[in-house]
From TrEMBL:
Keywords: Coiled coil. Residues 12-86 form the Transcription regulator PadR N-terminal domain. It holds the Pfam family Vir_act_alpha_C. Residues 121-148 form a coiled coil. It comes from Clostridium boliviensis. It comes from the Bacteria. Residues 98-180 form the Transcription regulator PadR C-terminal domain. This is PadR family transcriptional regulator. The keyword DNA-binding does not apply.
Amino acid sequence: MKENTGKSKYVMLGMLARMPLTGYTIKKWLENEYSHFWQESYGQIYPTLKALVAQGLAVSSSDGEHGNGRGQIVYSITEEGRKELSDWLYEKPEIEKLRYEILLKISFGENTQPDVLIGHLDDFIIRNEELIRNMSEYMEQMDQFKDQGINCTYSHLTALCGVYVYSAMKDWAEKAKKIISEKGEPS
């Protein structure tokens, strides 16, 4: 389970501020739009949504104005929820914490064979190339929404950050492979 930072409520409110959503749709958006910079435990989605409803920050409906006709519960933000989100957006962000296991393995690399590390770096490069492709495809999908009059500027910016981060990590891994292969010192 991912670390509960207490921010789940704001993730859900931010998503609901865009449009009414089902828990499943929120799960899919988390996988696509946010996975490169934010993880939420899927086990937190429905309890968080229920808590938002209990706090009066969101409402739920299975039919009516926001219903989808399939019996799924659709959640919508309330005015109180919009105020809560707005207040949080004014707060200064917490300092980010970076965790990459590959960096730990490289840091302790003198305790294994260079080929082991190079194998890890090859896998890391492939994974980052795939993530770059995913983010680029997601940005292309957002361009289609623009044609429908939906403003995706801020979502596009977060995806663009993902492209830059994954590109930088890929470049680093290629340089690290070269240094390990040459058994040289970092330059």
